[in-house]
Design brief:
Strand content: 25-35%
Distance between the termini: 36 Å
Largest sheet: 6 strands, mixed
Radius of gyration: 17 Å
Order of helices and strands: EEEEHEEEHHHEHEHEEH
Structural class: alpha/beta
Number of strands: 11
Helix content: 25-40%
Shape: globular
CATH superfamily: P-loop containing nucleotide triphosphate hydrolases
Strand order of the largest sheet: 7-8-9-4-10-11
Number of helices: 7
Bound molecules: adenosine-5'-triphosphate
CATH topology: Rossmann fold
Number of domains: 1
């Protein structure tokens, strides 16, 4: 599958946020998006998913313009930047809802075993992020959009999540954004830097320095 988006025009309060975007993501490849705070990474993912409307946008799958918002196709899973799961939900119920096996999760993250009967509200921010990211990655969708999956997560869990993402790319089109740029550079096959409304393809750390993303 090839997923493309371009022709976006997004403004908030007369301030143009996105206007020169072309982004292509493909099954078998991880597409990473980097960019400074406020450059529009979350907005771009939300436009792709369909939860944010822009003045213009053109989303294509295998070259075919998508009239429907992507979330209505049932083929996309989205990890938003902020909390996904309702606070009062029991953790095992969240696994049931996503149709994901708890015992497989526990084989990778054994320290979470004690939480099965707890509620989402009883997790730390990082523990919640691990569970949410795991559920989205294992939700059996063709397209996966991840907004800051590594936020609040301890390095040992970041490594495990990275391994899962790399395994999933074989069957999924994955787009990921995060401020952990080294992690993004390590796992991504294609990287874009979002800057001044545009997407610029990036191939090395030197490019990031030249663009003023790194000092
Ligand atoms: N609902 C909104 N109303 C007004 N302005 C908004 C709204 N949502 C986002 N913005 C503005 O649009 C810009 C892009 O926001 P966005 O959240 O997409 O950036 P981001 O690159 O994801 O930032 P960060 O890395 O800090 O999460 C920011 O300047 C933000 O203030």
């Amino acid at each position: 599958m090839k997923l493309e988006i371009d022709n976006i025009e997004l403004s908030f309060n007369h301030k143009r946020i996105l206007y020169g975007i072309y982004l292509k993501a493909e099954t078998g490849k991880i597409t990473g998006i980097l960019g400074r705070n406020g450059c529009g990474k979350t907005s771009l993912l939300r436009i792709l998913f369909g939860s944010l409307s822009s003045k213009y946008s053109n989303v294509r799958i295998d070259g075919v313009y998508q009239k429907k918002k992507l979330y209505k196709t049932g083929e996309v899973a989205y990890l938003p930047q902020h909390q996904l799961l309702p606070t009062g939900l029991k953790i095992h119920a969240a696994f049931d809802y996503f149709n994901v096996e708890w015992h497989l999760f526990i084989t990778i993250f054994p320290s979470f075993e004690k939480y099965k009967k707890n509620r989402i509200s009883e997790l730390s921010s990082g523990e919640l992020r691990v569970i949410e990211t795991y559920l989205v990655l294992n939700s059996n969708k063709k397209i996966i959009l991840l907004d800051e999956p590594f936020s609040f997560i301890a390095p040992i869990y970041v490594e495990k999540i990275k391994q899962i993402i790399q395994r999933k790319k074989e069957h999924c089109t994955i787009i990921i954004t995060d401020h952990f740029y080294q992690e993004i550079m390590e796992i991504s096959d294609t990287i874009y830097l979002l800057k001044e409304g545009y997407c610029k393809p990036i191939s090395s750390k030197k490019d990031l320095k030249n663009e003023g993303y790194l000092s």
